[in-house]
Amino acid sequence: MEIIFSLQLLRFLAALSVVFFHMPIFKGSSIGVDIFFIISGFIIPFILEKNDNNFFIKRIIRILPLYWLLTILIFISKILFPNIFSYIDVNLIDLFKSLFFIPIYSEIEDRIIYPIIMVGWTLNYEMFFYFIVTISLFISKKNYIYLVILNIIFLFLLGNIYQDKNYLFLYISNSIILEFVLGIILYLIYINFNLFNNVYKIVITVILIYISFILFSNNEIRFLSQGLPSFFIVLFFLQINKFIKKNNFINSMGLISYALYLIHPYFLSLNEKIIIYFEFKQTLIYLSYIIYLIIVIGTSFFIYMFFEKNIINYLKKKLING
Predict the structure, then answer these.
(1) CA distance to 7, 172, 174, 263, per residue, from 21 (Å)
(2) Whole-number average pLDDT of the chain
């Protein structure tokens, strides 16, 4: 499969932006999540254009191994070492729902709460998107893109109409699911229009990024406040792809982004406990966060190289090639 190196770089930067968002010394934005959704909406039809065989199995192989391993480890850790976690109210039902990407509704808090892996709520939406794509492919391989767009918009509207009836309707009423549609639209632009070989068009995209932030930054609808800027950011990175040096290092940055995204909250929590325990002053606090970044990025690389890569290749061999 052709690698778009600029998107690999952007995937890493998006994951890193989420890391910074969760660090208390920064006042960042969670826009990295929205960038991920736009990239997913773009890259799935890009991949399927080359090969639409075993789509859902390939996605499962990419997402499940590390997510399931971490979910089970965190679940066991919360039972054995409850004092090191801020939220420990977990049970087997929560474990089951977390493992199978089912939103968890708390009747006590009267809201949808995080799965066992804190950032796993976004993967629930990713799997929702993959499921819609799979169903649409089954109905029509020729027109699946338009079926995906229609299905997502229909479910979003249905969710908003019936959100007070059931928490699953409430879950799909979130405008963030429309960002997958933005990604698909970006793919259609990518294959049908020449927006990617002209410096003036790149400058226009930069202006559109700025305008979208200015116009919608305070809007309560996430699709507008973070989805539209993300759309133009991904467009910008697609436009500059020809200027990005094609090498394994940049590709690796994209490949480790998944592990970085999943594990960073727990390393961050550990770092904050160290800061409190040793009563670090300002200079040491900043230094500890620099060390934290080095360790979490290094660990993500280690996880990809020695776990993800091997298990993905093994499962592909057994489930697809075997």
Answers:
(1) 20, 24, 21, 14
(2) 93
With left for phi above 0 and alpha for psi between -120 and 50, is residue 105 left, alpha or beta? beta
d(CA 293, CA 288): 9
**Amino acid type, 322:** G
- The single-letter DSSP state of residue 73 is H
pLDDT of residue 85: 73
What average pLDDT does the segment 260-275 reach?
A: 94
In whole angstroms, give the CA distance from residue 59 to residue 247.
24
H-helix or E-strand spanning residue 105: strand 104-106
Q: Which of 81, 137, 51, 45 is nearest to 273 (CA)?
A: 81
Mean per-residue pLDDT for 141-146? 96
User: Do 179 and 41 contact (CB within 8 A), yes or no?
Assistant: yes
Tally of domains in the chain: 1
- Residue 210 CB neighbours (<10 A): 12
Nearest to 40 by CA among 141, 153, 132: 132
| Nearest CA among 319, 276, 265, 267 for reference residue 298 | 267
Report helix angle 257-278 to 5-22, nearest 10: 20
Residue numbers of the domain that contains 186: 5-321
What are the pLDDT digits (tens) for 53-100? 899 999 999 999 999 999 999 999 988 887 777 666 778 999 999 999
Per-residue confidence (pLDDT) for residue 233, from 0 to 100: 98
Where do we find the tokens 């191994």? Answer: 65
User: For residue 255, what is the enclosing H or E element?
Assistant: helix 248-255
What CA–CA distance (Å, rounded) separates 19 from 262?
10
Cα-only R_g, the chain: 20
